[in-house]
Design brief:
Blueprint (H helix, E strand, L loop, with lengths): L4 H4 L12 H5 L35 H12 L6 E5 L6 H13 L9 H7 L6 E4 L9 H12 L8 E5 L7 H12 L5 E7 L7 H4 L3 E4 L5 H12 L3 H11 L2 H9 L1 H16 L5 H16 L2 H15 L5 H42 L11 H10 L2 H19 L4 H16 L2
Parallel strand pairs: 1-4, 1-5, 2-3, 3-4
The structure holds zinc ion.
The site of zinc ion (ZN) has 7 residues, from helix 5.
Length: 419
């Protein structure tokens, strides 16, 4: 196999050993993040291709600079731990880093590799989320380790993104530890978590920590405005629905995701007068709207399979199919989570309007829906409605079928929204 240059240099040196090297370095004002290691590091931040995903991490300039420098200096480590609050853009940063690491130009944004990573359809970037309510399954980690042992499909290396690594418990964590310590040369792991305190120390000590700062919603909305040219009110709404600025940008660009949000708003607006049949219809319509953007992903997966079928073994094809299936489930789940965030955002507006008539709703485009709901519901009812959304999120996390979870939520919401 061709030597995978970005990973072939100094992966065992001081830079990667347990100490939170970039953690100290990233927040530091202008100190070079890799100051602890011996190799020369450019004093200036490397120039970033404007089309690359890394250049778009405007909310996390220090992280962006640190990751770009690691790539441009050829000193990419093999295990990173991205730490930050939800909405700080860790997952976006992880994908951006994967793009920069796999692209021959350090993340040009335009080559085949970059485009595939940006569409999250690159077969050598694997994103894992826990498959059970309590955490990662040992079988999930075993599958991952089997995959780590395989050569990359298209790129020179492979990147594994592991979300919610605080949910890596005992046996699942143990299965991963050895590989995390000495991954094959062509492999990079990026683990994501909220705080090192809730992650197993044995995992933390094997990774370079990269802390993310909390991005205030107004700042996130301004960043989205700069990138999309869309009005501020829509950007505020998009951040509140999508979470991070990067996801808000892609939300605003996706007619299908915006339509999914509208389907939730329509359902909430009509709920107080809805009968049982209406509620079941709403749940079905919302589920279908969430699934609409998946058609493109399915097509890309199918094309990938057809291209790879000639040179992959039957076992590897099966593994690819399983991964594709898991990816679709994960995407559907994140789509459902997004429309639940949309519901929460709208209901929070209702609650705020009840408490302060001068309040300017985040969902300004549907202010009349907020007003109508606020006229019908009590403060207690609005609070119960928010609880119903949280309960639905829990059910989806516990692998309840999304449509069923939505039906239960809509029935609970109707009860809460009628005084
Ligand atoms: Zn590229």
């Amino acid at each position: 196999m061709e030597r995978f240059v970005p990973f072939s240099q100094d992966v065992t040196g001081a830079g990667t050993a347990g100490a939170p090297c970039p953690a100290g370095a990233v927040p530091a004002s202008s100190a070079a993040p890799a100051a602890a290691s011996a190799a020369p590091v450019p004093a200036q931040a490397p120039a970033l291709a404007s089309n690359g995903l890394l250049s778009q991490l405007s909310g996390q300039p220090r992280v962006r600079e640190f990751l770009a420098r690691a790539v441009s200096s050829g000193r990419v480590g093999q295990a990173y731990l991205f730490l930050g609050a939800p909405g700080s853009g860790k997952l976006d940063a992880a994908w951006a880093f994967a793009q920069a690491v796999l692209c021959d130009e350090g993340g040009c944004g335009v080559c085949d590799t970059c485009r595939r990573v940006a569409h999250r359809t690159h077969p050598d970037v694997h994103c894992l989320a826990p498959e059970s309510a309590t955490g990662y399954l040992v079988s999930q980690i075993r599958d991952l380790l089997d995959d780590v042992a395989l050569a990359p499909v298209r790129a020179r290396g492979k990147v594994y993104l592991i979300e919610s690594c605080d949910l890596l418990h005992d046996s699942a964590a143990n299965a991963l530890l050895k590989t995390l310590e000495e991954p094959p040369e062509h492999v990079v792991f990026v683990l994501l978590g909220t705080s090192a305190d809730v992650i197993l120390p044995t995992i933390v000590s094997r990774c370079q920590q990269v802390p993310f700062r909390v991005v205030p919603p107004e700042e996130a909305a301004r960043a989205v405005m700069r990138r999309t040219g869309v009005d501020e009110a829509s950007c505020r709404m998009a951040v509140s629905v999508a979470g991070s600025p990067e996801r808000a940008v892609s939300f605003l660009k996706s007619a299908e995701r915006r339509e999914a949000r509208r389907s939730v708003v329509r359902a909430l607006d009509a709920l107080p007068l809805a009968d049982e049949a209406d509620i079941l219809t709403f749940a079905r319509e919302i589920t279908e709207a969430v699934k609409a953007p998946l058609a493109e992903v399915k097509a890309a997966q199918q094309a990938e399979l057809e291209q790879s079928a000639d040179y992959l073994s039957r076992g590897a094809v099966k593994q690819l199919e399983d991964r594709n299936k898991r990816e679709l489930t994960a995407r559907e789940r994140s789509g459902i989570m997004e429309i639940l965030a949309a519901a929460r955002s709208l209901l929070r507006d209702v609650l705020m309007e009840l408490q302060d008539p001068a309040y300017a709703p985040v969902n300004a485009d549907v202010a009349e829906v907020v007003g109508r709901l606020a006229e019908r519901v009590s403060v207690t009812g609005a609070a119960c409605a928010l609880d119903a959304v949280a309960a639905c999120e829990q059910r989806v996390r516990k692998n309840v079928t999304p449509q069923l979870a939505l039906e239960v939520m809509l029935f609970d919401l109707r009860k809460a929204l009628c005084r």
